[in-house]
Amino acid sequence: MLDKWTQAMSNSGEVEVEVSEWFQNLTEDVITRTAFGISYDDGKAIFQLQGQQMLLAAESFQKVFIPGFFPTRRNVNSWKFDKEVRKSLTKLIDVRRESSSSAKDLLGLMIEASKSRPNDVTPNDIVEECKSFFFAGKHTTSNLLTWTTVLLAMHPRWQALARDELLRVCGSRDIPSKDDLIKLKTLSMVLNESLRLYPPTIATIRRTRADVELGGYKVPRGTELLIPILALHHDQAVWGNDVNEFNPGRFADGVARAAKHPAAFIPFGLGARSCVGQNLAIMQAKLTLAMVIRRFRFKLAPTYKHAPTVLMLLYPQYGAPVIFEKLAPSSSESLPSSESELVSSGRHTVSM
Ligand code: HEM
To answer: How much is the pTM?
Structure first.
């Protein structure tokens, strides 16, 4: 991806990239490799079918809501895709079960678990898990990458701080090692602040298992409660007067001390049912951003319009066009004193 951006650069050494599209491609690739590993090609085809089904779901989400059980043309198409996805996944699982492979991708691990505990992990569970991983793993992580790139483009000072730290920690290594990643504290703070301001998942749900009293309200058993992650992350009473500002420094002493309440920051939910993909998502985002920051300096394209919008997840409504400029290898830079934008001309754009 980064090589393609570099190749597409104009003589002025710049290229304009619609980052949200590229990051979606990247995260789809990563989740396909993580889930299916050695069966990557088959897995990719299945996930592409599921992607088409999700597009239909997103379309109906935007229009008047018609329940999924009515045989509208869109629903019939969606059932067709679902049947196809299910059939292909079942076949893939059977092939792996029969093979002697001991691959440690997610599919391999689930098949192993189903062999030792057949009553706990059924073939149908494996199909459903694979479907969830794709849905839960692709768009969330690409949104995180997109918003963080936009924020770093808006705030060149934080971009330069993250780059300086990266060069200090990694030295001549182009790709950070596992140990390097842990030491990239500035990048972690930037990612947390991005997850606070623009949490890809804006809410989650809990159902009460018993009658409870919550904040002075009596809530009967079986009530569904919506936990508004986005609203909680923007609550001035908890985060202070600069709640709407981009200030990664608030995470300098760790997540629990960033706000007045230790559980005010919940981009991955909370408790036993919190996000199982959290570590994968953070590692992927850190690795990607580290590689981007090392190669390029970047700023928002003049056509960028800031319009966060909810379409199941929190998206930039008009996309995220960003201008990248190639940096000399291992080039550190003096930190800009202001966050003003650089002006440029004569650039190319690159599409996938
Ligand atoms: C930035 C990226 C991500 C964000 C913001 C995110 C956010 C969330 C949130 C808010 C929940 C609900 C948690 C709760 O109710 O307490 C969740 C659940 C879940 N996520 Fe993620 N997620 C991300 C990436 C991923 C990835 C990469 C995967 C898969 C590899 C994944 C798989 C799941 C699954 C399977 C659940 C359901 C867990 C359960 O019900 O026990 N997520 N995620």
So the answer is: 0.89
